[in-house]
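User: Quick sanity check before I run a bigger batch. Here is a single chain. Can you write out its predicted 3D structure?
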Amino acid sequence: MLMFTNYSAFNLALFLMNYFIEGIIPRMIEIMIAPFVTPKMFWIVLPLLASMILMQLYFGRHREEELGWNTAFGNSVALIFVSVNLLQLLYNEYGYSIFNLLNPPTVKIWPVIFVAALSISQMIINFFHLIPKRIAFFINSATSTNLTAYFAIVFVYTNIPIDFTSLITSFIILTALIYLFKLLRMAVPMSKKAAIYVEMKKRMEEKKKREIEIRELRQERAIDAQVSDAKFPFIMALLVLIGVLLFQFIFSTKAPWTFLFSSIFSSVLFILITKEMLKKKKLEIYNLGYDGNSDEAITGTFIGIFTFLSLLFLGFSLSSIIPLKDFQILSNSIELYGKKNFVGTIVFLISSIIGPIGSELLFRGFIQRSLKPYFGIHKAVILQSLMWCILNINVFMLTGTYTYWLILNIIPIFFLGIILGYVKEKWALDGAITSHICVNVLFFTMMMLP
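Assistant: Done. Predicted structure follows.
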């Protein structure tokens, strides 16, 4: 299992550089040339790649058009056919044993299950229009859909390992191609109708921005807007901390489970507190800096990768003062309640997604916004990060269970809060949320995979 060890900062830098050169780059080449090395999958992925390029050319010329809910729904259905095709391939090779998910004959079944679950969830979302259309259309665009299908096909048809390196490499390829295709769309000459539309849209966005600024000025109530907005969430945050500590103390015999469930519990409360405060002040979510901009969300994922690597570097640097017994307790906890337990893995995943959403809405969204008029941007960012650190105190520090590890974990959390605070100011709450999710998922993956 990947664990922190007593690396120096310099050795860690060399380790990360070697890992990128010797691990990421060769795996990237493997994934990209897979259709040519494995001819039986070439004619399957060729239509996927061709349709991606053609769609970029189409939407580059006709920028006044968007995907549409019906097309998004159709793309999510297409992913089901991909998962069925891959399942049939595995069934022909392994028979009925492929359906034994508790002890599957091959790890290749997991990409198939992932694609199937993703397509079904997308179908439901698109059918009932459950999320903002800009987000739904991005997730179900030809690029996102076809690349997801491509990665699943590659891992099923080839013997490329399904491990942490493959996950990171696939993510890098996905984000790089999204930006590359965006540049391709921008390079395509627009139609006359599209040029008029783009100009009108730009003017409307500027007008809407001015209207929001005027509305916010009217909503601000001097001291009330500057201080009391922050005081109430701070008091509620302390109450949440007390509740979480009591929850962990009562169920402390199952420490890892308690820690995860209390994390989800507190994150849900953060969302509810934010919702009530918005209602109280008659504000909307866009007042917190969330605008549903997919470009900002994509930028946030890139920032999340670099932030994760930076925090990993910091963690390795601090690890030399952590007692060996803390490593052993933490390793045993993760091994027992995570990797060997499917339910534990699901809880980790939920915590990695719900946690960032709740934290960003309350701390980088509501509290930072409330502190900024009174203290300024920089002090507001530091203060909200300190408050966030307080909420990461738990009963396992107080009872001595891997105390050193958790206390030192507060230091990267503090710096993460500062980074996310500035990300929110530059790339809105969209970028902060995706950055936080990216950091949590990468950390979870690193700890769970062998």
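The chain has two domains: 20-187, 220-448.

User: Great, the batch can go ahead then.
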